[in-house]
Specification:
alpha+beta, Macrolide_Exporter_MacB, transmembrane helix
């Protein structure tokens, strides 16, 4: 039997038995729907991590040298955590030595962060992400200002009490007002606002617009780093390929300052955007494994339903099979007919599941913005192929049983 003739017969049977066909494909539909939804969420998060997270939160082509790693792949044992706590702190003297070792013109910036309460005469107090920074911080983070200016290197060295804020801080503390030139207190210390950063959006629900950035030597540093140490030094490479070379320079400098022997491990951390992406890849892998469990159950249930319904169909259509055999249909023709019918049912269920899965992923990302959805084109082809495979496997036994029916005995069936 030609393949397309078998498909036409299968579609005619499905059209006649709409309700039975719907319940037949329901398991596959649900399984594929969850599969596509999980893949879409994971793909969207991957795109978000690579395009937005690494660039906005960390910085493009950057790495940070710090006392402890910013991101850690895998679980951290208590012994390892304690060893991190025993590491020497970083100070400005370390920064000066590192900067002198780096190639001339390499952008770098000290960064210290803490969440602190801010107040103004125009609004109730609220927590902001207070950052004490110097050097090329605005360049590294690619912060563009919509109003005012960034603080100068001289202001950074003098510790001037000036502040550059995010749009959310500006809108909350200075509603319908120009914040530039006005005063904002952080932990009770007044600062003059000199600039407003353009809207940055959010990362996984965490707002990037609650910033309040002051020079590192300003009083804010006593809040971010009360022990006069620093959180870390951000270094920016000219390209991704140069990151490893600059990391080698920093590693050699820090090991020399800490007088580490060749056999001793680093007692500092070098964290890059690649480290963050590796950390996310592990989370993504666990999400994929966990998320695939429900679709797998749905597909197993769907295959069992298809097999049982097809067995019922064989019993109901015994006389039809006998007539076809009496008219010259071969065993393989009968087997092809039922296999194609099972596969067609399963593919239709998969197609419906794909549509519902994409819609579900989109609705989920609207309800929870920190779960962005993205379409992975390969997943659509994979889901259709999976549906066809499930249909063929599930229909194999019923099709074989139908093909072995004796035409004379089949024609006797009422």
């Amino acid at each position: 039997m030609p393949f397309w003739e078998a498909v036409t017969l299968a579609l005619q049977t499905i059209r006649v038995q709409k309700l039975k066909s719907f319940f037949t494909v329901l398991g596959v539909l649900i399984g594929v729907m969850f599969l596509i939804a999980v893949i879409s969420i994971v793909q969207g998060m991957s795109n978000y991590m690579e395009n937005d997270f690494a660039g906005k939160l960390i910085g493009a082509n950057t790495f940070t040298v710090s006392r402890m790693p910013n991101f850690q792949v895998g679980d951290v044992s208590e012994a390892e955590w304690r060893s991190w706590q025993r590491r020497p702190r970083m100070y400005e003297t370390d920064v000066r030595v590192i900067r002198s070792a780096l190639p001339s013109g390499t952008p770098s910036a000290i960064e210290g962060q803490v969440f602190a309460y801010a107040t103004s005469p125009y609004a109730r107090r609220r927590q902001v992400q207070a950052v004490a920074a110097d050097g090329d911080y605005f360049q590294i983070k690619k912060y563009n200002l919509t109003n005012g200016r960034a603080f100068t290197q001289q202001e950074a060295e003098m510790g001037a009490r000036v502040l550059v804020i995010g749009t959310e801080v500006a809108e909350h503390f200075f509603p319908d007002l120009d914040p530039v030139g006005r005063e904002l207190k952080i932990s009770g210390m007044p600062y003059t606002i000199i600039g407003v950063i353009e809207k940055q959006g959010s990362v996984f629900g965490f707002s990037l617009d609650r910033l309040a950035i002051a020079p590192y030597h300003s009083p804010l540093a006593r809040i971010t780093n009360p022990q006069d140490d620093i959180d870390g030094l951000i270094v920016q490479a000219a390209s991704r390929e140069q990151i490893a070379d600059l990391q080698d320079v920093v590693r050699e400098t820090m090991r020399s300052r800490h007088r580490l022997q060749p056999a001793e491990k680093d007692d500092f951390a070098l964290s890059s955007s690649e480290s963050a992406l590796a950390f996310f890849d592990e989370i993504k892998g666990k999400m994929t494994v966990f998320g695939a469990a429900l679709p797998a159950i749905g597909m197993i249930v769907g295959s069992m339903v298809i097999m049982n319904i097809m067995l019922v169909a064989v019993a109901e259509r015994t006389r039809e099979i006998g007539i076809r055999k009496a008219l010259g249909a071969r065993r393989r023709d009968i087997m092809t007919q039922f296999l194609v019918e099972a596969a067609t049912l399963s593919v239709i269920g998969a197609a419906m599941g794909i549509s519902l899965g994409l819609v579900g992923a989109k609705l989920l990302s609207i309800a929870f913005p920190f779960l962005p959805a993205g379409i992975a084109p390969w997943s659509i082809g994979f889901a259709l192929a999976l549906g066809a495979t499930v249909g063929v496997i599930s229909g194999a036994y019923p099709a074989s049983r139908a093909s072995r029916l004796d035409p004379i005995a089949a024609l006797r069936q009422e």
